[in-house]
Specification:
This protein is α/β, with parallel strands linked by helices. It is globular, with a radius of gyration of 13 Å. α1 (33-43) links the parallel β1 (2-6) and β2 (48-53). Helix content is 34%, strand content 18%. The longest helix has 11 residues, at 33-43. The termini are close together. The chain has one domain: Spore Coat Polysaccharide Biosynthesis Protein SpsA, Chain A (Alpha-Beta Complex).
Length: 95
């Protein structure tokens, strides 16, 4: 099963925490929010996760690489520049 997570927001409502860390990597319960989502998807049987990244993609992917050893899920990164681009790009990957 495949899943798409939109992780491209700037996190303006969570500032100043999101000035250096993307919103999905802000800790919630001693773990990044994104890690909670990935764990839940893995428990539901998802084997491939597509991350639609816009804000700080390098920080996001380096954090995911350190975490992916714990959860056996394949990650795909899609960088986008317009708000509607991720849907157009990943439609082929999800089907």
């Amino acid at each position: 099963m495949k899943a798409l997570i939109l992780v491209g927001g700037f996190g303006t409502r969570l500032r100043p925490m999101t000035l250096t860390v993307p919103k999905p990597l802000v800790n919630f319960g001693n773990k990044p929010i994104l890690c909670h989502q990935i764990e839940a998807l893995a428990k539901a049987g998802v084997t491939e996760i597509i991350l639609a990244v816009n804000y700080q993609p390098d920080v996001m992917m380096s954090a995911i690489q350190t975490y992916e050893q714990d959860v056996s899920v394949v990650y795909f990164k899609s960088l986008y520049e317009s708000p509607f681009w991720p849907v157009a790009f990943v439609i082929d990957l999800l089907l």
